[in-house]
Amino acid sequence: MTQKNVWTVLLTLMCLLVPAARADQQPPLATQLSSATRLLVVSPHPDDETLGAGGLIQRVLHAGGAVKVVFMTSGDGFPAGVALARHLQHPQAQDYREYGLLRQKEAKQALAPLGLPSKDVLFLGFPDSGLCPLQMTYLIDNGRNYLSPFTLEDRPPTADVMLPSIEYNGEDLTKELTWVLSHFRPTLVATVHPMDRHPDHCATYRFVRAALQALQKYDVALRPSLLTFLVHFGNWWPMFGMDSTGPQLHLPQHFPESEATWWSFSLSAEEIQTKRQALLQYHSQMLVMPQYLLSFIRTNELFAAEPQGMQEVSPQMPCCSRESR
After folding, report:
1. What's the pLDDT score for residue 220?
2. The pTM is what?
3. CATH number for the domain including 212?
């Protein structure tokens, strides 16, 4: 990125820190999306990417930019989902593994209506419901790896790894993310917010930050802007109502940050309809939580912008006791 482009992004981020009170107020960054935009969306599970950034993905692709979506897990550690999708009362390890493959297939089918081909979808294959342990207990690659209680695996499936000898520990996960960043070279990264109440979500944010910091130590030219979106926060989602396509999305009432620091990204009627079509491809999740998924079909999406030159963060944080879904 040239010095001129760096200053353009900085000025854009400064403009983003304005109240998000009006759904029809188009943020300055929307006018900066172009064929030069390279958006990397890092999603904890299949469906989070569309819930939080399905409209943004469409807008970047429509502008001629490039998009890649990376899934930290394949969502295979979801007992209620496996039981419904596979009609089993007591799923076994192989059932969880096959459920992960099903969710990967659904993710590709969901991203296709948004305009993203399968070649731009990556699955890292790390343990669903296990990202916080990787961050808290299994952070170092020292031969002691996390074992998924669902799939009974201690490493990603062979088809999902990009680097050799990758296992379930935080160091290897950071290496994989750093590799993706260095090869795709995004100008914009979108992932979940650190105050998201799902432990896999807040851990995802920390791993993305760690990978960005690791990369910037030896690749000073790569300085992508970071946007975050919120998916889980207590009983926030039931307040939306079923499939409310009219109202604007707002932060939870008791969220600790002011909405004035967030960017309200208005969606067109076509983008809203396409986002709905994408979410409906997640058939296994529609069996479990249709109201939750459809409640994100709104006239806007909300993003928080983080400035460049972010401070170092501790690899540990007290998020592992939060809600799981």
Report:
1. 87
2. 0.87
3. 3.40.50.10320
